[in-house]
Each structure stands twice: as C-alpha cells, then as structure tokens.
Amino acid sequence: xxLIRKTAAELGSLIAAGEVSAVEVAEAHLDRMAxxxxxxxxxxxxxxxxxxEQARAVDARLRAGERLGPLAGVPIAHKDIFTTRDMPxxxxxxxxxxxxxxxxxxxxxxxxxxxxxxxxKTNLDEFAMGSxxxxxxxxxxxxxxxxxxxxxxxxxxxxAAVAAYEAPxxxxxDTGGSIRQPASVTGIVGMKPTYGGSSRYxxxxxxxxxxxxxxxxxNVLDAALLHEAFSGYDPMDSTSVxxxxxxxxxxxxxxxxxGMRIGVVKEFAGxxxxxxxxARYQEAVHLLESLGAKVVEVSCPSxxxxxxxxxxxxxxxxxxxxxxxxxxxxxxxxxxxxxxxAEEVMAxxxxxxxxxxxxRRIMLGTYALSSGYYDAYYxxxxxxxxxxxxxxxxxxxxxxxxxxxxxxxxAFPIGERADDPMAMYLADLCTIPSNLSGNAAMSVPCGxxxxxxxxxxxxxxxxxxxxxxxxxxxxAVEQALESHWGGGLLSRAPxx
Amino acid sequence: xxxxxxxxxxxxxRLSRLALTDDELDHYATQLDQIIESVAKVSExxxxxxPPSSHALPLTNVFRADEVRQSxxxxxxxxxxxxVEDDRFRVPRILGExx
Lengths: 496, 99
Fold this sequence. Notes:
The complex is a heterodimer.
Chain A lengths: L7 H9 L5 H19 L2 E4 L1 H16 L11 E5 L26 H8 L3 E6 L33 H8 L5 E6 L5 H7 L2 E4 L19 E6 L2 H11 L17 H5 L8 E5 L9 H16 L3 E5 L7 H16 L20 H12 L2 H14 L5 H24 L2 E5 L15 H5 L6 H6 L2 E9 L6 E8 L4 H19 L11
Parallel strand pairs in A: 2-3, 7-8, 7-9
Antiparallel strand pairs in A: 1-3, 4-6, 5-6, 5-10, 9-11, 10-11
Helix pairs in contact in A: 2-3, 10-12, 10-13
Chain B lengths: L5 H10 L6 H18 L34 H5 L5 E2 L2 E2 L10
Antiparallel strand pairs in B: 1-2
C-alpha cells in the first residue's frame, strides 16, 4: 500500500522501526499535494524545503536514539490560524498577508516536540468565521468527495487535506463546530476537546470563551494519538484546564460500549434535516444498541436557542478580540500618507483588510454590546448559555454520552449559501451547544446519504473532561461500520 | 419595523473603526436587520432568575511569580510592524484629533 494511504499510527511505527524515513514519508505526501492541490486547494502555504528540513531533523533525532512519541516523523497539515515561526500565518485574512509570527503557538510547539512534520498551513474561513471556507480571502477549498461542494468550515482546508490523502492528520479549531462540521461533510473524524483541554496560546483569537484546538484524522485512533500529542495544561493560557489529559488513546483502543447509556437528543431531528442524514444517523444509533449500549431519548429544549445565543456571544467576543488589528504593530497598514490621523488609518486599514463576514460579525458584536442593547442581547445570550449548560448537566445524570447528527445536511454546493448568512449559520445547529457548555464532542463518519452519496457524521457529546467517552463510542461505531463496509468510508470516495 | 437603521449601522461602523462605503452600509443594514431579528429569539428563553455565564467552566484568576523571564527581543517584536523608527513602532499622528 502506498505511504499516503497508511494511517498515522502505521506510519509512526514504520518510521520508528527504521523501515521508512520521515523524509520519504514527507516526500510522498508533498508529491500527492503537488498532484491534487490544483483541484482541492486545501493549503495556503506550502514550502517543500522547510518540510523536508523538519523531516530530516526528526530522522536525525531518531537515529541519535531520542525517544519521541508514536507520531514522530508523521506529516501533518496545520490550520493557518496557529502561529508558526517558520511559515507565514494569515488566518486567511488580507490584514495578516505575509505575516511571519515571532513565536510558535503552544499547539505548534508540541507538534514539533512530538516530531510531527508540518506540511504547510491550511485554508480556513477568515479568522475561523464561517462554515464553508468560502470566507477565505485567498481561495475556495473544494470537497474531495465532490469538487463542486464545500469542505465545511471554518477548518475546511484541514478537513479537505486529510480526506484527499494529502496528509494523514491535521489540526483545526472549533468555536461553534469548525472541526466537527468539516469532518462530517468530508467523511473523516474530527474532535473538539473539552474547552481548556488544549491550549489557545498562539491561536489567533476569534471568540476566546469558545475557541478550542482539536485533531482531524481518517480514523479514531489516529485522532486520539494527535489529541494526546498536543493537549494538556499550558501555563501560557489562562483558561487552560490544569488536569490530566483524558485517556483518549486507551479509549480508542477499547471500543466497547456494552452497558453504556446513550442519549438521543430529541430536538435534533425532523424538520430541516436531510432525510439521508437522518437515515444514516438512526442506523448508527441502532448499531450502538446492537453493540450492547442502552439507548434512551433525552429532551434538551433549549438547544434550539443555542444558535441565536451563539450568534450574539461569538460576534461580541470577536468585536473585542479583533480590535487588536489596529494597523500599528503588525499586519496591513493602509492610507498612511502623513496627512491622516491614526484613527483614519485604522478605519481604512480595517475596511481594506477584513472581508464581509468579519465586518458583519464585528458590527453585530458591537451592536450586541452597546449600551441600551447589552441586556437584551449579550446579557440574555449569556443566560441562555447557563440554561444550556444546566440541560447538559441534567442529561448527563441519565446518560454517559449524547448523540445527534453532526450537521443537518451533507456538504452543500459552493456558492449556495455564500450570500445568505442565516442559511450558512444553520450548518452549526447541532454543534454549537457543546461549545457554549465547554463539553467534549466528536464527529465520526456513519455512512453516505442516499440522495447525494455524500458523507454523514454522527456527533458524540460527552461531559467536560469526558473526552475519552467520545473516543470509545466513536471507535465502536467505526469498527462495526468498517467491518460491515469492508473498509473505511473514504475508500468509497471518487479518485481525484 | 426594522430592528436596525442605516444610520445605526454607520454609527456601528465608526465605533468598529471600519471605513465603509455607502453601498456597504446599505448592504449591511439589510443583513444585520435580518440577523438581529432572528437572534432576538434569545429573549424568549431565559427568565430573570437565571444567572448569566460568560464562560463554560468556572474561572479563577491565574497568577505567576513576578520574575523576569525571557521574552521577545526588540527586533522580534518589531519584525511585523508596518513602520519602525529607533527601535519603536512608528504610528500616524494620534494627537489633535477631533472627538
């Protein structure tokens, strides 16, 4: 089997055993990228030499007898919202075009320590605001299953790169579903760890109370290995959780759900959901039952107001976070001709440097936080957040995990929702509650919808620091479905 | 009745330091109006006795010892600056602005 089709775990073992070098593995993936990138357009930045150099350094560390983790020498695609010392970091925004950060994000630094080889920086919706990656200021990324469709978003470059076998692993960030939704619509595994379980240091901020880095992979075990490699307490992030990383790798290796109590969220089905999505989802629930899990229906009535609450909370935080782009210390500066004031230069720069969705959210957040409206909008949304957390807590008294479809529909056509913000926002309907409550949640492939032959994801939600439960259930679903299908879901994707 | 007027959008753009064109103001006035109408649903849910949550998890202040540690050098800190002079960020005039 060619190197690009292997799992990350297999590649790590081959490299550790000296059967293949990190350089050879990196080259195989760089060649694949050269072949399919013109169609997929997952990457914003690729630098063959820097990548080979990293791989060479890992080979040298291994030869010197250094004990690295199970992913040493394995290549990874890195979302272009994490700072990287040796590569540009843009957040897919013109305001940061060409910016070379002077420091590595904690996630980046931990990838390097574990010996992962960064293949390049992946495309995203500008500042991670979107559900289709169409809001990138640079390029549109295409879904490897159907190039006329979106790869999800905001981490759409990362999902497309893994689904297209350009990389076995990638990083993402999930603020309202930006890992789980792209994973779902490209037929791969995506995990949003517990909030604070992975570090935000060096992650360009969108909504700080929600932003959570997490892994993408083509299978559950690979996702767990990556999760373990970059997660855990970080003193550089004031909201980092000072607790051990849940034993996600062990859980991924023990796909046993017998006796587990699984709650089906009643509110996430029916109107607005594509029939083919619901069919695959219901089959996955029956499958879990046949594997010995106890399935019960759980009602969380406030989950339907999570979406409006999110579209007040996230823009409010973004309007504050993005104030740092002031044309003074880094990034773009427009109109500084010696006659204009700092304030004028700032306003011209931000108008030229931010795209339409970012401007929309900055103004929406400014509105929600302004005096006279604060109580009615931002304040009220924060109360909804409390109610949703309480409903999760009540649900987890009865069940170990909750499940739902990850997204209401399969991947939608490029351009279909680009000018309709409210339609776009609906893609995150089922994923947002776990962001508001800080819970762990995963999307795992559960089949193809009958009407369009496109991937469907099962969402598995677990309590705070119950990340291992997502991996246990995800691995059980994966194992049973793959034995039924005779291989992974991606083996049914068309050749690129 | 619309929730947000074009004049309000112009005010928001000024608060947000976004120099928008007239066409953009019209466009955003329509879109923000739709979005605000839709998110106003939050007011139907939570009762007065529900406390607000700013974060999902309980937060406490994080302190560290007040010790000098390695940080960015001046060159590193200035490496992305649009304009630099004498190891400092050079910025447009900030005094004498009208309020």
